[in-house]
């Protein structure tokens, strides 16, 4: 889980960090923390921001840009993830609804409440991700929207994403039953994500990463049906021939 903490009090930051480390002991996940003492230092470098950040923990009272203003700026960047405000005051609690904050927690943190929030966010995060254990038995969580395809590679399945390729010891029959309906098997060796189809022509699927997959005869009718339903549902304009 990727978490960014904007907190100008070093002692408070250490307390938050310790709480997060205590919470993560109950989960088989990797915790990635970034800390900034003010919002300006975070926003001044565009590389600090990523839509893949799972959670922002924002102190309300800090620097020239307070936590509420930082949250509004994040939403202007089209950040869809979760935001939790941490503060010693209740003054901004109703304003937090305007930026769709997940919660508004008072300092000092009540760990029972904080942990419940984190667990709910983790559960929600998993519901939108493909999760598996890699060769090192580490749990890997990949957002569905990043996955382009699953393809058989000997005894493994390659998971091609917009960022990299993962290898999983599994089979397509098991995988397809665990995926949302935007994923369709198009060949005995391929499952593709309909949201990454750029063009379909002469029984060939052109994917967003430039690769091409030929649809197997036994999968062709189902693929055409699923693809037409998908493009109609989302009013997409991909080429279909």
Automatic annotation (TrEMBL):
Location of the Response regulatory domain: 2-122
Modified residues (4-aspartylphosphate): 59
Keyword Phosphoprotein applies: yes
InterPro entries per the UniProt record, alphabetical: CheY-like_superfamily, LytR-like, LytTR_DNA-bd_dom, Sig_transdc_resp-reg_receiver
GO molecular function annotations of the record: DNA binding; phosphorelay response regulator activity
Domain HTH LytTR-type: 131-229
Keyword Phosphoprotein listed: yes
Keywords: Phosphoprotein
Domain of life where this protein originates: Bacteria
Signal peptide: none
Pfam hit, one: LytTR
Main function: May play the central regulatory role in sporulation. It may be an element of the effector pathway responsible for the activation of sporulation genes in response to nutritional stress. Spo0A may act in concert with spo0H (a sigma factor) to control the expression of some genes that are critical to the sporulation process.
Protein name: Stage 0 sporulation protein A homolog
Species this protein is from: Butyrivibrio fibrisolvens
